Amino acid sequence: MELLLFYIFGGVAVLASLGLVTGKNPVHSALFMVVVFFVIAALFVLLGAEFLAAAQILVYAGAIMVLFLFVIMLLRLQPEELRNTSRHAFQKFFGIVLSLVLMAQIALIVRGGFFKGAKGNYTPEVVSGFGGNTEAVAAVLFTDYLFPFELTSLILLMAMVGAVVLTKKELK
Amino acid sequence: MTEFIIIMLVKMFVIFGAVMLTMTYITLAERKILGYMQIRPGPNRVGPWGLLQPIADGIKLFLKEDIIPDKASKVVFVIAPAMALIPAVMTLAVIPFGPAVTIMGRQVDVYMADVNIGILYIFAVSSIGVYGIVLAGWSSESKYSLLGGLRSSAQMISYELSMGFALVGVIMMSQSLSMVKIIEAQKGVWFIVPQFFGFIIYITAAIAELNRTPFDLPEGESELVAGYFTEYSSMKYAMFMLGEYINIISVSGIVTTLYLGGWSGPILPPLAWFMIKLLAVVFFMIWVRATYPRFRYDQLMTFGWKVLLPASIANILLTPVFMKIFGYL
After folding, report:
1. Which of A63, A165, B180, B181 has the lowest tally of Cβ within 10 angstroms?
2. In chain A, how many domains are there?
3. Is the Cβ pair B120, A54 closer than 8 Å?
4. How far away is chain B from the Cα of A133, in angstroms, using its nearest Cα?
5. Is A97 part of a structural domain of the chain?
6. Above 60 in pLDDT, residue A148?
7. Taking CA atoms, what residue in A is nearest to B128?
């Protein structure tokens, strides 16, 4: 049952990603990306990580992609304007090279038996010992990873201040 | 396994049917109450006291011609109403209407699921609701629709933050994300008392999320005709309306669960208490609609970012202090 669901969601993810990359219309691409986020959330649920699933939908599908769509709508990007300019040809070349490198890396890791190695500390039993997925994430995040967590919030704060400064018309 | 699936299917039909029926009559109740508040009778021609009005409306919408504008982006134009309706219905899955009842010797809960991330689920699902509106505005290729869609997405992004932050207070007090556990945590005193500011912030933000008066700028008829669904007709228009009213029910259900003690109450059965509280919240929202004029757009943004958001953050900061003083911790 679980394996079947995995194949269904995985298949949808692959198809939607293909649609995302090959789509000519930016809005359609954005919608395919939303589908990808949903399927990834479903995969998280299959792994018993329901907190991550909810966060995935909330943050990526519910906030980030809405802002993407918002910008696409504001700019009124038409499909024709995006095709075959010389600058895009340059980007296409690097895109192909980089994605080949990435594919090679993923293949190396999968072939290298990385996933067959020793099991990590957080088995389903340990997680249920915390009282659930949400509690386990919180416990690890606010003890072992407290410093990176605080560092991330500092970086986000910097980004926020940067955005405010950039949009201010005149600096006093 | 089979038994589980059958029980879930039956529950699905019962809950969906009950919500659809309630929703139909909330449309009538809204028009009637607005009518009485404005000293006019409201709909009273179809059936006794206008009771058949919602059915007549439904038939009318169903028989109307379905128009797709020539320049519209067809696929997106067709799926947009569905994307507005589906998240609204999905929310119903975790609203606890009542505790377990015994039917034919089986213990059956009167809700679809008690997931242990209930609040987050609701919040995640409702954050998707904005897609229907944005896409409807974009795909119609009409300036009124586009402006309505833009206004609405900006408004929903702004108010979603305050809504989420207001809920943090409830989560802190109940120590749980599960809807059923939150109801159990309100055995002593309903959260509307200790979380009064959170309640005010939540219901204000929720009315803004629902695009209802005084925050109904996305469909401000004097400037935008009807906003994002200007170009929609027939059943597609009806789907937007359905989504809107189902959202009203689910928001009222959430307010009932999180702040009004859910199904708990003396004498009457739990389900009856839940309905009474839910309808009281619905009445409150209609009352607000009859009372306040519409905000101006800059007022809406200023209010959202400079009043509601700081207030909700202050609520998060003050809740632990309050809990310490009154011995919750």
Report:
1. A165
2. 1
3. yes
4. 9
5. no
6. yes
7. A62
C-alpha distances out from residue A94 to A26, A83, A89, Å: 20, 16, 9
B210 close to B246: Cβ distance less than 8 angstroms = no
Q: Is A62 domain-assigned? A: yes
Q: How far apart are CA B237 and CA B216, in angstroms?
A: 17
User: Which residues have a Cβ under 8 Å from the Cβ of B327 and sit 6 or more positions away?
Assistant: none
Instruction: Give the CA distances from residue B96 to residues A134, B252, B259, B285, in Å, rounded to whole numbers and listed in that order.
Output: 21, 12, 13, 21
Distance of alpha carbon B8 from alpha carbon B12, whole angstroms: 6
Cβ separation A66–B157 shorter than 8 A: yes
> Could you say which of A62, A69, A133 has the minimum Cβ distance to residue B134?
A69
**ipTM for the complex?**
0.78
B307: Cβ–Cβ under 8 A, 6 or more apart, which residues? none
Pairwise CB contact (< 8 Å): A58 & B120: yes
- B146 CB neighbours in chain A (<8 A) are 73
Domain layout of chain B by residue ranges: 68-325
Long-range contacts of B301-310 (CB under 8 A, 24+ apart): B301/B154, B301/B158, B304/B155, B304/B158, B304/B159, B304/B162, B304/B208, B305/B158, B308/B159, B308/B162, B308/B201, B308/B204, B308/B205, B309/B161, B309/B162, B309/B165
Instruction: Encode pLDDT of A20-71 as tens digits.
Output: 888 777 788 888 888 899 899 888 888 878 888 888 888 888 888 888 887 8
We report the CATH number of the domain holding residue A68 as 1.20.120.1200
CB contacts < 8 A, A to B, total 72
Q: For B229-269, how does the pLDDT look when each residue is reduced to its tens digit (9 = 90+)?
A: 777 777 788 888 888 888 888 889 888 888 888 787 777 77
Structural domain span for residue A146: 2-82+123-167
In whole angstroms, give the CA distance from residue B135 to residue B126. Answer: 16
Domain presence at residue A114? no
> pLDDT tens for residues B88-143?
888 888 888 877 777 776 777 777 777 778 888 888 888 888 888 888 888 777 77
